[in-house]
Design brief:
Largest sheet: 7 strands, mixed
Helix content: 10-25%
Number of strands: 15
Strand order of the largest sheet: 10-9-8-7-11-12-15
Order of helices and strands: HEEEEEHEHEHEHEEEHEEEHEH
Distance between the termini: 47 Å
Radius of gyration: 19 Å
CATH topology of the largest domain: Rossmann fold
CATH class of the largest domain: Alpha Beta
Structural class: alpha/beta
Number of helices: 8
Oligomer: single chain
CATH architecture of the largest domain: 3-Layer(aba) Sandwich
């Protein structure tokens, strides 16, 4: 009898893990024509760096990184690039969507606490680090200084404008914002890699960690730029959030060699990530 109860509980736990639940859209913030942030009611704990599976009935589902969280809600910044997202972009506040999760490892807060933290992100890669930046900003006594290098393609693709300004004004945050081929007020011209030499790693006395997220080509050259500045491999963390698919290791689409990114990641130390060639 006890064995049957254990099996039943195990089956219920698995169903709870993969079963979508309906949640109300509270608000929608339109950053650009293609990138919107959806604020949705949510009743589970979410860690910065995790992701959710968003689904619409009879349409499908898509993995989306969490860009913010709070008491009773979660935020996801979504790019309109497919069938699910195009349908989602027709939604309005008060509509309902299905969510399951959260999934994956978040940013290693216990590893980052007490250290100077450098965050380097590009484009929509700013979304999965936004929650981390906010956590550090709201808990300044738990960390050293915070340095941001955040880059976008052009002024029309800038995300989180209000947040960028808030972070710029914070005494605890040192900011560099860039545009690939433009220079306007508040933004410098150049790829994020061009500004890595300005980071004061020598002043950290080895007490630092680096977080980076962005397109694969950006992360490749960012890691090379960091290593050139003497940054140690075991002090770099990155996210393979772009590889997410089913979230539970069943479809195999996120598999790289023997690693299932959705189960073992999406956050990895660079010592592991450097060998995850896809």
């Amino acid at each position: 009898m006890e064995a049957k109860n254990n099996i039943k509980r195990a089956n219920e736990d698995y169903l709870n893990y993969v079963l979508p639940k309906s949640y109300e859209i509270l608000d929608i913030l339109k950053h650009t024509d293609l990138e919107w942030t959806f604020k949705v009611k949510f009743d589970k704990e979410v860690k910065p760096g995790q992701f959710l599976q968003v689904s619409l009935a009879k349409i499908g589902e898509a993995p989306i990184s969490v860009s913010g969280m709070g008491d009773g809600f979660v935020e996801m910044t979504i790019r309109n690039v497919g069938e699910v997202t195009s349908k989602l972009f027709k939604s309005k506040a008060g509509d309902y969507i299905f969510l399951r999760g959260p999934y994956g490892n978040g940013w290693p807060l216990s590893e980052l606490k007490g250290k100077n933290v450098v965050v380097i992100a590009g484009g929509t890669g700013v979304s999965p680090v936004r929650g981390l930046i906010e956590y550090i900003k709201d808990n300044p006594d738990e960390f050293g200084s915070l340095y941001l290098i955040l880059g976008f393609k052009n002024h029309e693709s800038v995300l989180f404008k209000d947040d960028l300004e808030k972070w710029r004004k914070s005494e605890k945050i040192n900011t560099i914002y860039s545009l690939d081929n433009e220079e306007i007020e508040g933004f410098r011209k150049g790829m994020v890699t061009a500004f890595i030499p300005e980071l004061p790693f020598d002043s950290f006395d080895g007490n630092y960690s680096v977080v980076m997220v962005g397109p694969p080509i950006m992360m490749r050259f960012t890691s090379l730029g960091l290593l050139k500045e003497g940054v140690l491999e075991d002090k770099i963390w990155t996210s393979f959030e772009r590889k997410m698919s089913c979230a539970v290791g069943k479809c195999g689409h996120c598999r790289i060699n023997e690693t299932y990114v959705c189960l073992d990641g999406p956050v990895f130390p660079y010592t592991v990530a450097k060998d995850l060639l896809d």
